[in-house]
Amino acid sequence: MQEFAGSVDHVIPRDQAVFNFGPEMKPVLEVDPGTIVTFETHDCFSGQIQTESDMVTEIDFSKVNPATGPVAVRGAEPGDSLIVEILDIRPGPQGVATIIPGYGQLIDLVESPVTRVLPVRDGLVHFNDEIRFPARPMVGVVGVATGGEEITNAMPGQHGGNLDDHMHGVGTKIYFPVRQPGGMFGVGDMHASMGDGEICGTGVEIAGEVTLRFDLLKDKQGAWPVSETEDAWITHGTAVEYPDAMREACREAAYLLAGEWGLSLEEAFILLSIRADVGVAQACKPSPFATIARVVMPKLEAIPGPFGR
Predict the structure, then answer these.
(1) How far, in Å, CA of 21 to CA of 19, rounded?
(2) CATH top-level class for 10-223?
(3) How many angstroms from the chain centroid is the CA of residue 204?
């Protein structure tokens, strides 16, 4: 993995962390648009699991999914979009994955709890002596202040939060709807690798550093966070059950096409059906966590980027 070679304006230590996103968050740092910040992050367990004898059933769950921050961006006001560009993700040398009693699609077939310690060296995740594969670093918790409700970092929502999606890696931009002045962005829950669905409830949970650049888009936003990669636009939807989450993601994609590309909802409906891909980002059921669906709409030459970009 090639590390970010540019200069960083600020570094936020991992002990500056929050466990909820709400409407009254206080910033640990205030920056201007264009500022580059490195966030040191805990793993999702706040370092409580270090060896294969450490079981998830023995940890303090009030310390799960810390998000480093929040950072306020000057000029960000309700109605704007806060743009967060992921410039670099640097996982630490060791991550963990767990099987949690009662969680996941195969839980009736396996013993639990189980902890696996997974070294990460030279850009590879070492599963065992025979199996290793390239790391695919991403960040799971990415969010901003909410419009009213306080939401634990275990859950996703229209503010982002635990928006586990492996496509949130280096090079991705995420457009967050600003609902409080400054936006109040926080990030955590890094994974060295996570598959679609995250079917046992964990990826390679790992501490590390993530470097981000902030920007603003004035007077435009979606209802949910919208992500941009080099080749595609991605909408998300979350709900308890997958059909409801899929419906929210599809609606957001349709409204994006209709509002920003001038298509009717009928045209958007058809275009999404014939060209977009609907998928699952997280669905570790059974569990108390939400399901996350996404719609990936490839960029097409015939239409410009959304939000007028």
Answers:
(1) 7
(2) mainly beta
(3) 14
